[in-house]
């Protein structure tokens, strides 16, 4: 099903982000899915968060942009979460994925690429987010995060990613249609409140 939806999105040039769900289930393997994104879907996954634990030990994620851990509270069914330091055993892995992410972001922005070669540490979080968004809109990369939607873990970070990386209506081109009073006349409408009302019949 994922392959079918992916092909459909590619056909219609729909920018997308990837969310690996059910990280608390038996057999969950986030990094295997990252690999399959490349090998099966021929995508360029840009990992923006890695899991803390897996299967019954799944607790939360490491946000690779902020370089902080986000751990959800089981007692509140994921409604509350704590932002803290990255667990010691994950620091090296998180740094490795952070560096990959920054490099992928830099490949989508010439100015950032210069900074990346000069001194990657000078690249700000805002610049990384903007470059990943640019890459998402041009479909050069696909931001990737994970969680367990049923337990409300990772849903907040997914919604943040939707706001940060996916296009708003204002990013879409103007639509062409015909004037109902003159079928031979083609009119364009931008997706703006200032434009006259437009409906699809």
Give me the oligomer status: single chain
Structural class: alpha/beta
Strand elements, count: 9
Shape: globular
Helix and strand element order? HEHEEEEEHHHEHEE
Secondary structure tally, helices: 6
Radius of gyration: 20 Å
Give structural notes.
The chain has helices spanning 2-11, 30-39, 91-106, 110-118, 125-137, 155-165; strands spanning 18-20, 45-47, 49-52, 60-63, 68-72, 81-84, 142-146, 175-179, 182-189. The protein is of the alpha/beta class and 201 residues long. The radius of gyration is 20 Å and the shape is globular. The two termini are 30 Å apart. The model has no long low-confidence stretch (mean pLDDT 91).
Topology readout:
Blueprint: H1 2-11, E1 18-20, H2 30-39, E2 45-47, E3 49-52, E4 60-63, E5 68-72, E6 81-84, H3 91-106, H4 110-118, H5 125-137, E7 142-146, H6 155-165, E8 175-179, E9 182-189
Parallel strand pairs: 1-7, 2-7
Antiparallel strand pairs: 3-4, 4-5, 5-6, 8-9
Helix pairs in contact: 3-4, 3-5
Q: What distinguishing features does this structure have?
A:
201 residues; alpha/beta; four-stranded antiparallel beta sheet; three-stranded parallel beta sheet; 6 helices; 9 strands
């Amino acid at each position: 099903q994922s392959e079918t939806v992916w092909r459909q999105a590619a056909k219609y040039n729909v920018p997308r982000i990837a969310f690996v769900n059910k990280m608390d289930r038996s057999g969950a393997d986030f990094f295997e899915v990252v690999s399959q994104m490349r090998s099966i879907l021929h995508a360029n996954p840009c990992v923006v968060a890695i899991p803390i634990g897996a299967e019954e030990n799944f607790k939360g994620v490491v946000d690779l942009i902020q370089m902080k851990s986000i751990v959800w509270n089981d007692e509140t069914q994921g409604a509350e979460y704590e932002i803290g330091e990255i667990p010691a055993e994950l620091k090296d892995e998180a740094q490795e994925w952070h560096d990959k992410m920054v490099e992928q972001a830099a490949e989508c922005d010439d100015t950032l690429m210069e900074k990346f070669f000069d001194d990657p540490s000078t690249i700000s979080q805002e610049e990384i987010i903007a470059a990943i968004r640019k890459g998402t809109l041009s479909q050069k990369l696909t931001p990737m995060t994970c969680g367990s939607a049923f337990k409300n873990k990772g849903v907040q970070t997914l919604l943040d990613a939707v706001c940060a990386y996916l296009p708003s209506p204002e990013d879409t081109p103007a639509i062409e249609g015909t004037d109902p009073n003159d079928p031979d006349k083609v009119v364009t409408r931008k997706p703006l409140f200032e434009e006259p009302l437009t409906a699809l019949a």
